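Hi support team,

I'm filing this because I wasn't sure whether my run with iron/sulfur cluster finished correctly. The job status page said complete, but I'd like someone to confirm that the output block is well-formed before I use it downstream. Pasting the exact inputs I used:
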Amino acid sequence: MFVAKDFQELYALVSGDQTIDDIGASVDCGIRCDKHCCRPGHTSKYLLPGERAFLEDALAERGDPPFGFASLGYFETIVEPNTRACACEPLRDLRPFNCRIFPYGPRIEGTEVKGLQKGNRKHLEPCWITTPAPMWEKDAVQAWQRILSDEDNLVFFARLATLWEWNQAADRGEDPGHVLVALASLEAASPKERWALCARFFSRSD
Ligand code: SF4
Ligand code: SF4
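And here is everything the job wrote out:
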């Protein structure tokens, strides 16, 4: 599992300009969409295994916490105050990994992250950015490779993938069996199978 040093290095990798204009100037993508992804209720930001403890420790030293935490069962999330759109404005350097990388997931081939891809889901339509800045993209690919090379992180995303596939099957009217059986099968999955699950998860669309 990632420890504080891993999170610090991970955050450093994806703290640059995610979006730039034609002349290479930084673009605040939230202006056009009124910070859609940061508004409470629009998205649920996952925390990686160990990230909540890391952030709680870091926030305890800083005061005025910009967000709270909650468990959504299979993952921990941040809870944003309704009173401001961007909870992390006071402490932007402590925004979670998911906030830094959104809306780009990894494009996976085998056990390698080959690039980035943007999720194609209806509730994210106000998100207008499609092309990451080249330098940021290079570091983000490295960040995803590092994340998924950690066993706990790989299992974390494979678990989300299993739940998503279970849910999709139920929505199609199929009998996907009990969710706990589906999750138990994950325990027996090989690393290669877990990577394959993650690849499907990050390629999902509505
Ligand atoms: S990442 Fe997308 S949804 Fe979030 S502020 Fe930028 S453009 Fe808007
Ligand atoms: S921590 Fe910041 S970037 Fe992340 S959802 Fe909240 S306001 Fe947006």
